[in-house]
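Lab notebook, design round three. We kept the backbone fixed and only want residue identities now. Task for the bench partner: fill in a sequence for the structure below.
Input structure tokens:
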């Protein structure tokens, strides 16, 4: 399976902020942004693998600056690192004040997707070839993030073994 460039999986989407998108602080509702991030990242994973993909984890979403109704939101996503069957997808969220033209990084996110074969089992994915400085930095630090994800998942499964599935009223 030949490796692909980050650019081959890149997805870009720009949208406006409307009144039904904001919270009580008149800023973009975080849950709306998280949903949009997952949607964009899923397209990126499918574009890279050319297979059905599932979200294995939302590894991080960092809200760095509020997004207001005066802003447009440009989201850019691409595959930054791959394992055997998994892909790390980076999403960069840029807010642009439509009146002044000022742009800022409003959020960043890392998600992990697993490619599936026709039987719904994990399936191999192409490697990644970073080209830009941004892509190279993300690629170089990808293995460390993957190791942290693996440990976090192990700890989550262990913790889940202590949880009950009883109904709260029982």
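Proposed sequence:
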């Amino acid at each position: 399976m030949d490796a692909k460039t980050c650019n081959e999986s890149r997805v870009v989407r720009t949208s406006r902020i409307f009144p039904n998108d904001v919270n009580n602080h008149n800023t973009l509702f975080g849950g709306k942004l998280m949903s949009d991030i997952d949607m964009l990242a899923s397209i990126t994973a499918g574009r890279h693998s050319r297979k059905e993909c599932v979200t294995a984890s939302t590894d991080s979403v960092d809200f760095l600056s509020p997004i207001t109704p005066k802003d447009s939101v440009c989201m850019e996503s691409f595959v930054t690192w791959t394992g055997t069957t998994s892909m790390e997808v980076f999403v960069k969220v840029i807010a642009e004040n439509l009146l002044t033209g000022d742009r800022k990084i409003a959020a960043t996110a890392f998600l992990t997707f697993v490619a599936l074969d026709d039987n719904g089992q994990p399936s191999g994915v192409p490697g990644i070839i970073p080209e830009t400085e941004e892509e190279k930095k993300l690629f170089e630090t990808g293995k460390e993030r993957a190791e942290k994800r693996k440990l976090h998942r192990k700890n989550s499964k262990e913790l889940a073994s202590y949880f009950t599935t009883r109904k709260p009223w029982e």
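Keep this in mind before ordering anything: DSSP finds three helices and seven strands in the chain.
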